[in-house]
Amino acid sequence: MTVYIIRRVLQLIPVLLGVSILVFSLMHLTPGNPAQLMAGESAPPDTIEQIEESLGLNDPLPVQYWDYISGVVQGDLGTSMRYNTPVADEVWPKFVVTLELSIYSTILSIFMGLLAGIISAVRQYSISDITIMIVALFGLSMPNFWLGLMLIQWFAVNLGWFPPTGWEGPGSIVLPVISLGTAGAAIIARMTRSSMLDVISQDYIRTARAKGVKRRVIIYKHALKNALIPVVTVAGLQFGALLAGAVLTESVFAINGMGRLLVDSIIQRDFPVVQACILIIAVVFVLVNLVVDISYKFLNKRIDLND
């Protein structure tokens, strides 16, 4: 296990290096001049040239990338071109907000998805099964921004149960989490049902039933544990998708998270902030997948992670 973890951590280096090169190249190859945006449309050419010189934008791209990656290795993410402040001061507070939103939404997705999927599998072709799958399809089809607007209208404006916007206090997190986590719950529910039906049909489950083992023990101890591997995989991918795609939910609920910061920075051509945001998302995504892979060993002792 230790050797596997060390090997996977070392594999982070080329992945993150590739991500940094790709993002750096795309940001510098897209049209637009950040110095022009900072100086204003009516700024004279001399002022723009001075800004370009101070930001190092006149240096060759390899030199600019080397300066950037050298700073990242030392823990310096650079200085924001837009705010003229350290990138870390801009990114970290907003990253914490987005991370909390993604974690809460993932927990909701797993809880609702597992519960619905198990009920649907053990009552296959029943009214409960059909109803759950229809609701899951509906949840999967709804855009999260539309669901967010509907939740605001129903529970914030009409009923006044929750605040319509913001990320302060327990009440304000309910609607954004439901909005962002519903689609993930639908995916996990369908995956749980499919995986559970496959496991329930196995010979060892029939043997347990023949021996008189209680149904609850069969479902939750024997069947569910072996059915969780594909579900855990989907949950890990969902977390990464939520972390990277929370911008719509943050915009609808006026949450000052990293998604909104990333979009604003792309529009303003704030290279260091964009690169830092995407690099952080990439690191978290790879680490989550590492945790998912390690969890396979605990779910099924026969899996050899070194293969």
UniProtKB/TrEMBL annotation:
Record localization? Cell membrane
Q: Which Pfam families match?
A: BPD_transp_1 (PF00528), BPD_transp_1_N (PF19300)
Which CDD domains does the entry link to? TM_PBP2
How does the protein associate with the membrane?
Multi-pass membrane protein
Q: Which UniProt keywords apply?
A: Cell membrane, Membrane, Transmembrane, Transmembrane helix, Transport
Instruction: Domain (ABC transmembrane type-1): give its ranges.
Output: 95-292
For this protein, the parts annotated as crossing the membrane are: 12-30, 101-122, 134-157, 169-189, 227-253, 273-292
Family listed: Belongs to the binding-protein-dependent transport system permease family.
Listed name of the protein:
Peptide/nickel transport system permease protein
Q: What is the lineage of its organism?
A: Bacteria, Bacillati, Bacillota, Bacilli, Bacillales
